[in-house]
Write a structure and sequence with these properties.
The protein is of the alpha/beta class. It has 7 helices and 12 strands. It is globular, with a radius of gyration of 18 Å. The structure holds cytidine-5'-monophosphate (C5P).
Length: about 240
C-alpha cells in the first residue's frame, strides 16, 4: 500500500477556560497571528500538499471563516465542529478522513513545533514499517508520587519512580487512517488522555521519536507569555 495522502487534523475545539481569556486560547494573538494560524502554517510549510481538517467549537466556525477571509489566510481547510471532549472532537474529524492516508493529529495550541519535526515524522511513517508515531520528551524534573489528605495537604507516599522510564507525550501523533478510525470506533473511556492511548487499547503498536521542548501546550497565561518571548527572539 502506498502511504501517499497526508492529512492534518488540528484540534481547536476546546474552550480553553484555564487561560482565563474571553476567547479560546487557540485564537489568541501570538506575535501578530492567532495561535491556530501559526500551528497550521508550520504544517503547510513543512508539507505543502497536506490536507487540513480544522476542528473548532461549533459557535466559532463563522468567526474563523471571517478571520481567514479578512486576513488572507487562504490555506484550504475543511472545518468540522468539535464534540464534548477531545476524544469526541477527534472522532468527528475522522469521519471525513479516507482510508489509505497518514493522519497527523495535533493540538492547535502547540504552535511552536518545528517544520523539521513534522517532515521528519511524515518521512518515518512513509517508509511503511510503523503503524503509529508518537513524539516524546524525557522528564527533566525529579518525579514524586504523593498522596492527598482529606484536607487537601500533600504527603509523601514513600513510592519511588524511575524518572528514566517516564516521558511526556506530545502531538502531532501520526497514524494510518484505517487504524486510527478503527481505534476511535471504541467506546469512550476516561483513560483516553491522548490519541496514542486510544490506539494502544485497540492493539495498534506504537513507535516513538524525540519531541521538542518548545512544542509545549499553551495551557496557562504563563505558557502564552513564554511562547510570545520565544517567538520574539526568532529571526523574521
Ligand atoms: O484542553 P486541552 O488543553 O487538553 O486540549 C488539547 C487540545 O484539544 C486543544 O487544542 C483543544 O482545542 C482541543 N480540544 C478539542 N475538543 C474538545 C476539547 C479540547 O478539540 N472538546
Amino acid at each position: 500500500m502506498t502511504r501517499g495522502n497526508k492529512i492534518l487534523i488540528v484540534m481547536a475545539a476546546g474552550s480553553g477556560t484555564r487561560m482565563g481569556a474571553s476567547v479560546p486560547k487557540q485564537f489568541l494573538d501570538l506575535g501578530g497571528k492567532p495561535v491556530l494560524r501559526r500551528t497550521i502554517e508550520t504544517f503547510v510549510s513543512a508539507v505543502p500538499d497536506i490536507k487540513v481538517i480544522t476542528v473548532l467549537p461549533k459557535e466559532h466556525i463563522p468567526f474563523w471563516k471571517e478571520y481567514c477571509v479578512a486576513n488572507d489566510f487562504n490555506c484550504p481547510q475543511l472545518l468540522v465542529a468539535g464534540g464534548i471532549t477531545r476524544f469526541h472532537s477527534v472522532r468527528n474529524a475522522l469521519e471525513k478522513v479516507p482510508d489509505g492516508a497518514i493522519v497527523a493529529i495535533h493540538d492547535g495550541v502547540r504552535p511552536l513545533l518545528s517544520q523539521k519535526l513534522v517532515s521528519g515524522m511524515f518521512s518515518k511513517m512513509e517508509k511503511g514499517k510503523i503503524h503509529a508515531l508518537i513524539p516524546v520528551v524525557p522528564s527533566v524534573d525529579t518525579l514524586k508520587v504523593l498522596d492527598r489528605t482529606v484536607s487537601g495537604e500533600l504527603t509523601d507516599s514513600g513510592e519511588g519512580i524511575d524518572r528514566s522510564r517516564v516521558f511526556g507525550a506530545q502531538t502531532p501523533q501520526m497514524f494510518l487512517s484505517g487504524d486510527i478510525k478503527a481505534a476511535y470506533s471504541q467506546a469512550f473511556d476516561t483513560s483516553f488522555t491522548d490519541d496514542a492511548s486510544v490506539a494502544s487499547k485497540k492493539g495498534i503498536p506504537l513507535s516513538f521519536c524525540d519531541g521538542e521542548r518548545y512544542n509545549f501546550k499553551l495551557t496557562s497565561p504563563e505558557d502564552l507569555a513564554l511562547a510570545r518571548m520565544i517567538i520574539s527572539s526568532w529571526p523574521r
